[in-house]
Write a structure and sequence with these properties.
By secondary structure, the chain is α/β, with parallel strands linked by helices. The chain contains twelve helices and twelve strands. The strands form three sheets. It has an eight-stranded parallel beta barrel with strand order 1-2-3-4-5-8-11-12, surrounded by ten helices. Strand 4, helix 6 and strand 5 form a beta-alpha-beta unit. The radius of gyration is 19 Å and the shape is globular. The model has no long low-confidence stretch (mean pLDDT 95). The chain binds glyceraldehyde-3-phosphate, 1,3-dihydroxyacetonephosphate and zinc ion (ZN). Glyceraldehyde-3-phosphate binds next to helix 3 and strand 3.
Amino acid sequence: MTSYKDLGLTNTAEIFKKAIKNGFAVPAYNFNNLEQLQAIISACVETKSPVILQVSSGARKYANQNLLRNMARGAVEYANELGYDIPIALHLDHGDTYELCKDCIETGFSSVMIDGSHLPFEENVALTKKVVEFAHSRKDYVTVEGELGVLAGVEDDVSSEHSHYTEPDQVEDFVKKTGVDSLAISIGTSHGRTKFKPEQCTRDANGILIPPPLRFDILTEIEKRIPGFPIVLHGSSSVPVEYVAMIEKYGGHLKDSVGIPEEQLRKAAKSAVCKINIDSDGRLAMTALIRKVLTEKPDEFDPRKILGPARDELKKLYMHKNNNVLGSAGQA
Ligand code: G3H
Ligand code: 13P
Ligand code: ZN
């Protein structure tokens, strides 16, 4: 059994307290490989931001959980070597069973999400409570994120065609009964690069899709029911038009891509939203640069020269998020 403290990691309790007090959101970036991890850590060290490294089911299948966990340990040393200590949490993203959460907790994750959002309320409560009881019984308290309300789109193995916004009337009961440390809610964000159908959007003068606004009214109601409690937003990529255009310029096809406008995430980050999950934007940045290099340098065959520029772009993207969207820069 390994404790996250032995790996130099931290749980999310203290960083969320600071996020609520200072009105920012902690970045939760997914990683599956070395280049993504290097970009996340170097961007967060340079901006002096705390960070949550997220491992999804897809990442576990692709890269192996043990390898990812040891990469997170390496990330702590890497941050150190870069010259500034930042809080780093290792978080299981969209855990779907008690057994999986238990396994992650026992092997050094400092935080887990148990996603029972697709279950009836009482079943979600029972599953979440079971995970919380185990996580909190550890000598080194592991923090737990639950979810109420369903996001549209695909959440790993949990899929839902339509979103069901979180019911403000249920949140207090859920938090009390489960003992969770943070709560993911549904107010109009969704996973992936096509967050809305074109018919749900309007278009600007250039034909760019403009999505419907997030339901800040629901967020306000939730905050009234559980004041000061850490709220999480999943599905918070903005799907930058520049990356989509670049991917299409170099041969890709990403029709009808649309994300959450950054100004809306900035507004959310100033509220009780203290963790914002971003994965798809990183995928777009990497794909755009990989396509560019492969097109412009057809004789290149060294993976480092192909992935290196993608890694640099990813770092730029994360620095921008920390500085201008989440407000987490300077908060480590
Ligand atoms: O919420 C889902 C994340 O973007 C991870 O997706 O399972 O394809 O890694 P993945
Ligand atoms: P995006 O697909 O919008 O990046 O959301 C990622 C996420 O919520 C991971 O849990
Ligand atoms: Zn998610």
